[in-house]
Amino acid sequence: MELFGAPIESIYLAALIISGLITVLYILFGDVLEGLTEATGFLNPTLLLAFFTFFSASGYLWEILTPLNSILIIAISILIAILLDTLLNVFVLIPLSSAEESLVYTEESLKGRIGKVILSVPKDGYGEVVIESNSGNIAKPAASFDDLPIPEGSQVLVIDVKSGVLYVTPHESFDEIL
Fold it and tell me: Which of 31, 34, 101, 148 falls 20 to 30 Å from 157 in CA-CA distance?
C-alpha cells in the first residue's frame, strides 16, 4: 500500500524515527513542557510519544513480516499501541508519580512522632531534634513544649509544629519504664 506516494513501510519507519527523536528530546528538555501537562490535565506527552512510537514500530514490523492487509495492520498496531501505553501508564508512570509524593512530609505529619535531641533544648530557647523516617532523617529546630530544658541525647515526643519549629516534650519509652 502507498500513502502520499510513498510505501507505507517508509512512512512507519519515518514516524518511528521522528517519534524516537522527539522522545529523546522530551527526556532531555521535558521540564520545560511540564506546565503543559498541568494545564491540559489529560494530555501527557510521555504517553502520547509512547503511543506514536509503539504504533509506528508495530506497524513497521507487521508490514515487513506479514502479508496482511495494511488496513488490518493499522488496526492491529493501534490496539498494540493502546495496550502497551496502558501497561506503561499503570505499571511505570503511576507508581513513579506516587513514589515521588511518598518521600514528602508535612509539618502536620510530624505531630506524635518520636525524635532524638541532637542539640540540647534550653528552657526558653531552641535546640535541634532529628526524626528518623523511611525516606531519611529529618532534622528540625525544636523548643520545649513545657518550658523545661531537655538535654542532648534525650528522646522526645513532638506535640505541636508551628512555623517549622517542633514543640517537644521528654518521652520515656516502654522499655525504659520496665
Answer: 101
